[in-house]
Description:
Shape: globular
Oligomer: single chain
Amino acid sequence: MPEPAPQPRPFDSSFVLDLPSVGSPSIRPGDGAVAYVLTSVDPETLASESRVEGVPFGGGVARRLTEGPRDASPRWSPDGGTLAFLRREEDEPAQVWLLPANGGEATALTSLRGGVAEFAWSPDGATIYCTSDVDPDALPASEEREPPVPRVREVHEIYYRGDTIGWRGRTSRQIFAVRVGAGRARRLTRGAFQHRALAVSPDGAMLAFASDRSRKRHERAPWGAELCVMPAEGGRVQRFARDVVAVGGIAWRPGRAPGEQQIAFVGAPEDNTWQRYLYLLDLASGECRRLTDDSIDPQTGFFPVAPAPPLVWHEERVLFLADAKGSSGIYAVTPSGEVEAMRSRRELIGGLDATAEGDRLAFVASSPRAAPQVRTLDLRTGRGRAVTRIGADYLAAHPPGRTERFRVRRAGESIEARLVHPPDFDASRRYPLVLEIHGGPNAFHGDGFSALHQVLAGAGFIVLAVNPRGSSSYGADFTAQVFEDWGGEDYLDLLAAVDAACRRPYVDEQRLGLHGYSYGGYMSSWIVGHSNRFRAAVIGAPVTNLVSMYGQTDIAVSFGERQWGGLPQEHFDHYVERSPLTHADRVTTPVLLLHGEDDIRVPISQSEELYVALKRRGKTVEFARFPGCSHLFLRSGHAALRKEYYDRAVAWLQRWLTP
C-alpha cells in the first residue's frame, strides 16, 4: 500500500532554511529567456548561497547558469550573447563576470579594488559602465600588511558610515568604463561624490546617472541625489532638476535626435521624499515635468540592498513599477501624463525587466499566500504566467494562513488593516491576537507574502497588520501626517484597529501581544508606555530616545530632522516627550528586546537604554543581542540568527499569551 501523505505542519522559522527566494530577473534579447537569482541556505554550513538560473520566457525547465555561491545581478548583453553578473569571491568585493550564452566558463571582467556596486551595458555591447568605491585614505596595496596594522580613522563628513555597508569615511562611489574585450577600467568621474542608477543613451554617446553634487548632499544622504548627464567617454557633468531628489530608475527616450533628447526618471520633492513621482526631463531646455500624481508611488528599491527597478519605454510610453493602497502594479504613462495600469491586482511586485522594445516583461510577484515567483508578461498578447515554482513543496507542507482586509474610519481618515488567520482557523474558537507594526514609518503592510506574519499565524496567533497614517502608497498627504507626530495620530490609528479586531468573536481581547521592528519597534515601545492592555511585547531594533538617536544614526539629517521636527537642540522638549524612554516607568507589559550589534541605522544603544530603564525599575524585560548583525539582518543576515529571531519572538509571545 502507498504511504499516506505527510500531514501539513504549521508555517514556522524553518522557512529561513528551507524556502528559497528569487530576484533580479533579466530578459535575454531574442528568445526572451529569463535569467534570475536563486538564493538558498546550505543545510550544512547554514550559509546563504546565490546563483543565476535561466528559464524560457513561456516557462519550462530551469537551467543553472552560474556555479555561485555568491552570484547576483544578471544582465544580458544587448545582442543576448553574453550574460554579465556580479560575483563575490571569499571576502573580496563583488566584480563583474561574463558568461557566454552558448556555453563555456565564466571569466572576470573587472578587478576594481573597491568592487562593483552596479553596472550597465552600452547599446553596442562593447563597454560596461559600473560604479565602484574609491577610498582616498586606503593604503597602497604594496604597503598593506598581513596581519593588518590598526589605523586611526578620521571623520570628515556627517554621513561617514552606513548601515549594512559599514564604514565609509571619505569613500566616494565613482563611475568607470570597462571595454569588454580588454578588461581595463577607466575612471570617468572625480570629486567627493556618490554616483548610481546608470543609464546609457540609445546612441551610446551620453550617460545619465544620479549624483549628490549639491551642497545639500549632507541633508540628503544616503539616498538623495540629482539627475546628472555627461558624455559617455567622460567630461563635463551637467546637473538637472535641482529641486527634485532623483531617487529611482532612469531611462532615455528612444528615437530622439540630438537636441531633442528626453529622460524619464523617478524623483521626489525635497519636502516629502517618501512620496515619489515619475518625471520627464527635456535635455535641451532643462524643463522637468511631473507626469504622475500621488495616487501611485513609483518604486525606488531599498538602499543599499535592492536597486531601483528600471524604467522602460514602450510605444511612446514609460513602463514602471508603483505601489498604490498596499498593492503593486505595472503602470504606463505617456509624455502628456496619461497613466494606465498594465497589471494591477492584490500582489506585491519587484525586479522589473523588459526587452529593448518594451513588449515583453519579467518581474517577481507574490501574494499573501504565495511566495515570490518570477513571472513573465507579453504585452502583445496580454498573456502572463509564473515561470518558476520556487518553494512550492515547502508551502504545500506548511500551508500559509488566509489574509483578510478591512478598514477603520478615524479622525477623518480611512485606515486599512489586514488580519492574517492561523492556517487551521476555526471561527468558533478564540485566538490571541498580535499587533504587528511595520517600519519606516513610511513603509506599509502590503498584499504580498510576509514570512513574519505567517510564522506568527502558524504559531496560533491572529496577526493584525495596520497601515496607520504615515504609511506610504496612500498619497502624499497621508504619508506626511506622521512627520513630527510619532506616537500621536499613528498610535491612535493602531489602537482603533485593535478595537475593531477585538469586536470579532474569535479574538480574545484578554490575550493581546505586540511585535514591531525599527519604527515598529519605536511604536511598540511607545504603546507599552501608554497602554497596559497588551500582555506581551517583542520589540525589535527600536528607536527609544530621539535625542541620542539623532547623534548616532547614519540618517540623522536626511531622515531625523524631517521626521522629528528639526534639530534636537531647537525642539528638545518635543524630542524628549516623544521618546518611549521618557515613559518607561509606566510600562507593565513584559518586554523582549531583540537587536543586532552592528546596527548603524538604529544603534543597539537604543535598546540598551530601554533595557536598563526597565530593569532598574523592576519591570519584566529580557534582551537578546545578535552579533555581527546590521539593521537589515532579517533580510540578509546569517540564517542561524535570522531563524533564532523568529524562534525567540514566538516563544516570548507563547509564554505570555498561550494558556
